Amino acid sequence: MRSNALFRRLLISGTCLWVAILALVPYLILLVASFLERGTDTLVRPGLTLTNYLNLLDPAIFGMAIDSIVLAAVAALLCLLAGYPFAHILARASARAQPLLLLLVMIPFWTNSLIRTYALVMMLKADGVINSLLLRAGLIEQPMNLLYTPMAVFIGLVYTLLPFMILPLYASLKAMDQRLLEAGRDLGAGRLQNFVRITLPLTMPGIIAGCMLVFLPSLGCFYIADILGGARTMLLGNYIRDQFLVFRDIPMGAAASVTMTVVMVLMLLLYYLASRRSGKELIQ
Amino acid sequence: MNKAVVVELDHVCKTFGRHVALDDICLSVADGEFLSLLGPSGCGKTTLLRLIGGFESCTSGTLTLDGQPMVGVPPERRAVNTVFQNYALFPHMTVFDNVAFGLRMGKKTEQEITREVVQALELVQLTGMEHRRPAELSGGQQQRVAIARAIVNKPRVLLLDEPLSALDHRLRKQMQKELKQLQRTLGITFILVTHDQDEAFAMSDRVVVMQAGRIEQIGSPMEIYEEPVNLYVARFVGDINVLAGVIREQTGETSYRALVEGARVLLQSTRPLVPGQHVHILLRPEDFRLELEEDMARSQDLSAKFQQARLRGTVRRIFYHGATYDVEVNLDSGARVQVTEFFDEDSDNLYFKPGDLVALGWHEGWEVVLPHAE
Predict the structure, then answer these.
(1) Which ipTM did the prediction report?
(2) pLDDT digits over B118-135, tens only?
(3) Which terminus of chain B, N or C, has fewer Cβ atoms within 10 Å?
(4) Do A284 and B102 touch (CB under 8 A)?
């Protein structure tokens, strides 16, 4: 028993150390850097300042933030529309088919998402798979302009993030008692009424969780907008990347990063409060 | 019965793959009747209920509600409501909204809905609970909400799927009375599924005993208990003792001389029996007469009561039950029977003790004689 406790303590302290060194410490460095000035031959120069944060209030940057948020929100909505029917089928599939279907959802994770994004380029480009297929089928006469459009960005985001929508939806649909739908029909509700009055409210926690899980990564996922959108639209993620890697303005990039993190934490907090309240309502 | 038939099943079969859930069911349920489907789990009683509710369709045969064939009619368009086994209350709605659900589906004004919901909640004694959520209610209260949610729609038939099985013993007894009362008040036809014989007997006008997808017997609780048509029914409803016998001769229109567990007895039976035929003699524990052999030797009156049947045995064990006690008797033939005795009003002591030699008889005509399995 004692060696067991020791083993557990080792495991826990190991994990804590890991998180501290690889997540907490770098983040603290970032936080400190965001209050420093930009150096000419060094990365940063000592001297506390709020300039970096004030720079973020620039209308251009503000507009970019709005664009990013709209993009992420649309991506979340698209994922919801695509993911809900699939999650529904998944949750109602036979006990034997479910693990298989779940596996199909997970398989893309086995390949690095950057590689998958480049694969999408192969699909979407002017002489790519989609265009050549459509041309050969005679459905179009000119190759369509797919790559480097907002649509390509959405395709990339939905493709990459859809599993994060499906899984929480699946969990909440599966947890729902099927007899409630029978009770609904017994009381005179058709399928649509059943969905609107029973299924939708009862799976709302899953819907919110899924939207959060798609929305938040969409905000920061710079490489998809970069590779598929052709870097034509500047988004928050690209902006931060550019500050670090192109302009070498570490304090500015750090300030933008910290701000984005704060916004995300606030949203997660809101979600937590909302879910706790609705959970309480269920109990009350 | 001269009342109109509400539900009629005509040679209904239901199969799931190769499993036969219901086999050639014929049953008609009269308006205002309280009918119970009684049987062990897996006997098809719930399938039968789901068939009437519209959640399953007949593989063959016809089901009519108020004379209308129900082929292809979905549950939402049947004048039938169900109280589900685990209530299936909507967890995200208040008690009021749960009960109002069915009314809102039918296009009623909010005013009518409020009035009818309040009325229904009054009937099930839940006034004041309108704004609670199901999770805040006790099991018994949830049960009442489920009943209110169904009856508020004024269905032609109310289907109840083991509605009381999740409640504790006392509450179950109380709900049985209330359900029966409610059924009388509303005049709605109730069809109750249960595996509990007491429950079926306490509430029903008629009981349908089922086994393995078939109906074994339909009758009033008294008929089922006192005149079971076969061993299965006899064993399923209450305790029963089965004695082996052979018919010797017919002595009257309904009376026979027979050899039962090695003793010569007189039997009564309306069934046609022939000499030499092997029969089962069914006796409930309370049907027996039991006396000490030593008392029998002393009293002429006593032995007169055992004229038509007198078996000998030894008391094996006694089980005390409060108002009654059970005596387990080993007959000389080797068979074992259980006898229920009431306490003697004049004496606090148990009359019998293990090892006593006893005479065993029964009240004349209370025996059920069944030919050996057909």
Answers:
(1) 0.79
(2) 999 999 989 999 999 999
(3) C
(4) no
